[in-house]
């Protein structure tokens, strides 16, 4: 039977990130994807207002529907936005059917939207991150979680991973996509560091890259792949998506989720 995965995250109306990116990734990685939508992000110049949160009842109902009607082998969290939603989701996952929980601590979107309220960060650290099999912060998110200065070298990433590990996850993956020298990510399991390298790709069209990366890891974990293999596959998947992006001629474009399937053998090593 095909592995089943659930994402609990926000909907991105432009289609490149959030729930939309997760479901596209799940399809490409050959797992059955479901979604519990926490909020809708729809920034535009006409209505001005851009973020609309769902009620706790709506989030809870979506979760239980996925669990009851299908079940899931792994789950990912993305944009949760409020401390109330974080508290609800942590309570659900604590009693859930799987320990394969990927926490992507989404805070700021590529378009500049604040996707996690300031008063929710501490609750995420206290309630949600300790439940995670792996957390996947980028450098800016790691800095916010640790309340530290710039993380701008691989050595600093290793130190950040060690500190984040103290929050309770089984693994920490610090993503170095914004490092100047190379796109290196650091995985830490409490004793060993594993580094994943790809050559930097010169493009602004990276919307959805972080969501897609963590979604691909979730998909591979649902297939019972070891963490290092899951991250390695996900890194190759998202690198292809960045190397062959979609440019809509309207600012930051999207990662291309079909790129690994279509051009996988041509991805820069």
Strands, helices and their partners?
Blueprint: E1 4-12, H1 18-28, E2 32-41, E3 51-53, H2 56-69, E4 74-77, H3 83-94, E5 101-103, H4 121-128, E6 134-135, H5 139-146, H6 154-165, E7 171-176, E8 183-188, E9 193-198, H7 209-222, H8 227-243, H9 259-263
Parallel strand pairs: 1-2, 1-4, 4-5, 5-6, 6-7
Antiparallel strand pairs: 2-3, 7-8, 8-9
Helix pairs in contact: 1-7, 2-3, 3-4, 5-6, 7-8
InterPro entries: HMP/HMP-P_kinase_dom (IPR004399), PM/HMP-P_kinase-1 (IPR013749), Ribokinase-like (IPR029056)
Organism: Sediminibacillus albus
GO molecular function: ATP binding; hydroxymethylpyrimidine kinase activity; phosphomethylpyrimidine kinase activity
The biggest sheet amounts to: 9 strands, mixed
What is the N-to-C order of secondary-structure elements (H for helix, E for strand)? EHEEHEHEHEHHEEEHHH
- Percentage beta strand: 15-25%
Average pLDDT across residues? 92
In CATH's first tier, which class applies?
Answer: Alpha Beta
State the distance separating the first and last CA atoms.
33 Å
Q: How many helical elements?
A: 9
Helix content: 25-40%
Say what the CATH topology is: UDP-N-acetylmuramoyl-L-alanine:D-glutamate ligase
Care to count the β-strands? 9
How many domains, in number, for the residues? Answer: 1
- What would you call the structural class? alpha/beta
By CATH, the superfamily comes out as Ribokinase
C-alpha-based Rg, rounded? 17 Å
Q: Shape, please? A: globular
Largest sheet strand order: 3-2-1-4-5-6-7-8-9
Poorly predicted regions are none
| CATH architecture heading | 3-Layer(aba) Sandwich
């Amino acid at each position: 039977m095909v592995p089943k995965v659930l994402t609990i995250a926000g909907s991105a109306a432009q289609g490149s990130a959030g729930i939309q990116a997760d479901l596209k990734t799940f399809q490409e990685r050959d797992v059955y994807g479901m979604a519990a939508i926490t909020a809708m992000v729809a920034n535009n110049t006409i209505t001005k207002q851009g973020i609309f949160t769902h009620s706790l009842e709506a989030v809870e109902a979506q979760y239980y529907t996925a669990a009851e009607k299908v079940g899931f082998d792994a789950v990912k969290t993305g944009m949760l936005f409020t401390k109330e939603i974080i508290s609800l989701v942590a309570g659900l996952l604590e009693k859930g059917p799987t320990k394969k929980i990927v926490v992507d601590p989404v805070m700021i979107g590529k378009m500049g939207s604040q996707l996690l309220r300031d008063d929710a960060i501490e609750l995420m650290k206290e309630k949600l991150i300790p439940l995670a099999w792996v957390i996947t912060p980028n450098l800016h998110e790691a800095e916010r979680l640790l309340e530290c200065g710039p993380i701008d070298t691989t050595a600093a990433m290793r130190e950040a991973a060690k500190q984040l590990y103290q929050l309770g996850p089984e693994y920490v993956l610090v993503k170095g996509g914004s490092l100047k020298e190379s796109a290196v990510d650091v995985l830490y399991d409490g004793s060993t560091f594993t580094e994943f390298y790809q050559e930097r790709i010169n493009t602004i069209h990276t919307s959805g890259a972080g969501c897609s990366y963590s979604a691909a890891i979730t998909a591979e974990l649902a297939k019972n792949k070891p963490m290092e293999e899951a991250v390695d596959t996900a890194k190759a998947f998202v690198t292809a998506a960045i190397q062959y992006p979609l440019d809509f001629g309207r600012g930051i474009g999207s990662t291309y989720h079909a790129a690994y399937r279509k051009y996988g053998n041509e991805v820069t090593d």
